[in-house]
Write the structure tokens for this entry.
Amino acid sequence: MQYDVVVCGLGSAGFTAAVAAARQGAKTAVLEKEFTPGGILTIGGNCAIDQFNNPFKSGDKMVIKGIGLEFVKKLEELGFAEIPDMYAPYVHHAQYSVKVNPVAAAKVMDDMLLSEGVDIYYSQPVVDVNVEQVDGEKHIKNVIISTKQGLKTIQSKVFIDTTGDGDLSAFAGANFDAGDNNGTFQPGTIRYYPAVIGNGDYVLDFGDNHNHVNKMDATDSDALTMANIAARKMLFEQMLNLKNQGQNGIMASAPMVAQREGRRIKGITSMNVDDFVAGKVFEDSICYSFWFVDIHRENEPALIKYITSGVTPTIRYTSMLPKGFKNLITAGRCVSSDRETNSALRVKASCMAMGQAAGTAAALSAIENTSPTKIDIKALKQRLKDSGAVVPAQME
Ligand SMILES: Cc1cc2nc3c(=O)[nH]c(=O)nc-3n(C[C@H](O)[C@H](O)[C@H](O)COP(=O)(O)OP(=O)(O)OC[C@H]3O[C@@H](n4cnc5c(N)ncnc54)[C@H](O)[C@@H]3O)c2cc1C
């Protein structure tokens, strides 16, 4: 199969990337290892989307709009999202979270992708990649996916890595950081749903019930296997305790431990925490992000650093371009950044804004037959603005 743009991984970032690329006229496909879109938003059991606004900013407080906002508004119209008042005075950081129903979210993602003509490949993970050297840079010729019919090859002019953990880029030989670079990663979380009696039958308690899970090395499938086994053991012990207390136990859980951090693929530039919290705007700042530095730790409180009041952090396009590659873009939690910055920019609205920028850039470069490293950033910003996204103003 030959495409203009192939998006690998259909989480928050991959979803907006694929919709954006298709809307820009690119023949687009999305490859996803599960049967459900949404990544951590759906199968990860974390249905909160932060943060579209900066409550401390003067003027328009909505710092992320575009496809992400369109998506949650669609869900709200259908009765499956709660969008809080983004202009309400600040009381607590969680008050601006958009809460979505994960089943409806996945269905609306399917609908939006299909209506834009995106080819969807579910349960067909990227397992390998063929790379060639062109003019001293790496060029991805195709990716290999695993399917019921065996291995298949998918070709594209441009590839977008939105696998969260940066699988595609790593398979292609990109350099990366991971966790603290010393084997420690933020704990993951398994969401579960205790059973309570309602209307004479069991119903699930959808309260925020979760356990933290340690040793989530995102670069090692064996370690992740052990972490998921440990999570189930923990849940089972809780169930036995509940049973012993005469309660009904736990009836369901998310199918996997949700991963907070994975690889950070080294880019042409890399975002650092000082610039991030100070809201520095670069020539290639392509979207905003709003959340604080928030590194969860195994046996101590999270490491927190707040954003300088009134400013809004930005995401650099050149940090989304893996160094030494001709036709690869990253978006979402695998972009190039130090660990502190990554713990902030990983929130879902930011991932959606990055995804839209990546998809638009990929389409522009595929249609113009040029590398994403060579496209005109001003033209990219204009396309993003024209399609409803917010682009940081340099003199702000
Ligand atoms: C426990 C927890 C709580 C959180 N709480 C919040 C919160 O309250 N608010 C908030 O905004 N954010 C929160 N976050 C952060 C946020 O949810 C994630 O950082 C964000 O969803 C990441 O989006 P993404 O698209 O980059 O990656 P993901 O959502 O991880 O999506 C990656 C997708 O790629 C697919 N994939 C992976 N490998 C392959 C492969 N080889 N081939 C094909 N597909 C592949 C995956 O199946 C997945 O669908 C939380 C995260 C966690 C883990």
Notes: The pocket of flavin-adenine dinucleotide is lined by residues 8-14, 31-34, 39-41, 44, 46, 48-50, 97, 125-126, 162-165, 167, 189, 258-260, 332-333, 346-348, 351 (CB under 6 Å). The CA atoms of residues 55 and 91 lie 10 Å apart. The longest strand covers residues 150-161. The chain has two domains: 2-180+261-386, 188-253.
